[in-house]
Amino acid sequence: MYSLKELLDGAEYTCKREIDGIYVTGIKSNSRDVLPGNAFVCLKGCKKNGEDYTAEAIRRGAKVIICDKTCGKCDKNAVFVRVPSVRSVYAKMVSAMYGNPSRGLKIIAVTGTNGKTTVCQMIASAICESGKRCAFIGTLGAFFEGKRTSLDTMTTPDPEVLYALLKEYKDGGAEYVVMEASSHALSLGKLDGLTPEIAAITNLTAEHLDFHGNMDSYYEAKKILFERAKKGVFLCDDFYTVKMYDEASCEKVLCSVNGNEAKYRAENIGYSFENGTVFTLVKGESRLPLHSPIPAEFTVSNALLASAVLSELGFDDISIYRGLASLRLVKGRMERVASDGEISVFIDFAHTPDALSKLLNSVRRIRRSEQRIVTLFGCGGDRDRTKRSLMGAVASRLSDFVIITEDNSRSEEPSAIIDEIMLGFDKSCPHVRIENRKKAIEYAVMNAEKGDIILLCGKGHETYEIGKNGAVPFSERDIVTQALKMRKKGK
Known about the structure:
By secondary structure, the protein is an alpha/beta fold. The protein folds into three domains: 2-97, Udp-n-acetylmuramoylalanyl-d-glutamate--2,6- Diaminopimelate Ligase, Chain: A, domain 1; 101-326, Mur-like, catalytic domain (UDP-N-acetylmuramoyl-L-alanine:D-glutamate ligase), CATH 3.40.1190.10; 335-489, Mur ligase, C-terminal domain (Protein-Tyrosine Phosphatase, Chain A). It has 16 helices and 25 strands. The strands form five sheets. An eleven-stranded mixed β-sheet has the order 10-9-8-11-7-12-13-14-15-16-17, sandwiched between helices. The longest helix is centred in the middle third of the chain and has 17 residues, at 297-313. It is globular.
């Protein structure tokens, strides 16, 4: 049992009504999950309002309702506590319920449009190489000491999951937790119950505008992280990250691939399919040669930011070098899934114009002159439509052959999404439309020419495809394997 007063005190909220002696058995934000004695939190979503489910929550046994100050509902069977910011109070109450576990951990939170997963994996790898115990929470799931917890596709989990994980990791002896901080999570107050030791940002380009509305709102959501962190590390290689560095109120550290004024920067950059990526980390007067097996231009940016964070945390050069060099694969990030001596197939999560551009430019610099770049991609349904034509323009400009297909079309028709992609597509680029993604992948492999580099973009680590009837299992790796077998039989 938990004292309601102590939970609200932990949420930095002083209740005006008398609540001494009221105890709850837990906190829930979904009325279907409510158990007898719980507190039910009324969250307002894009489509639903938790206040509409208070009666159901009370029927299930909720004895306390946490709601907005404007809520006019009441019920004699429950205590209504009206607060100014339901989501912030919710996160802090859940954190307090679990004993504020982040206070016993060093939290490193990484945000940005692209690269969060890779940067977090690099940081966690180096921390583990140093002998310290480190957990990771992000798009690929939550990991600690060989145990994986699925997060149901969320980059940053909801408070009821997040703070329970932090308590589990703290009790299990973790010293560090490296986590991805999404703009959704920041704007929805999920991280209001913790203070990161270091926050870092990779980049900021157009994405999630269906949720945020415009770039300024998207920027303000990301900026929240640096109002909470003790120190911020900024990779200032785009307009918005420079702006954030200038405006952030926390202690600030600047890094840049090319910026001479930065505390951390990169020199002597090189990359190849065979040897991965190499560069020299410049920090003040010292220089540290680094190597990552991941062969891409954006690996330099990711590794530079990760190295800067690790250096600011006090990790030595050996740990940084070993951490980057030992991270052979980040699932779904420039991941080579097949190479039969004739063609190579890579899977990458690139699902924004900026990410796709960086991926294709990287491959163009590495490939041999006779090799074709075959790009397969689509755009998600019920999501930001403004990027569709932009991605079409990028793919047609930087590829030798393009296959336009579906990618989590959700409630939309795949053909309609592809039509919007084609609005920006340069039709002089050789291309084909194949709505069914499985058939599109099979086409790419079966019709590949010797030397082709096939890039399957958009899904990355995902093992599902979302259509009108919801998510169904979908493994690009398995499809590629079977298609290669058919290719060999056909010869």
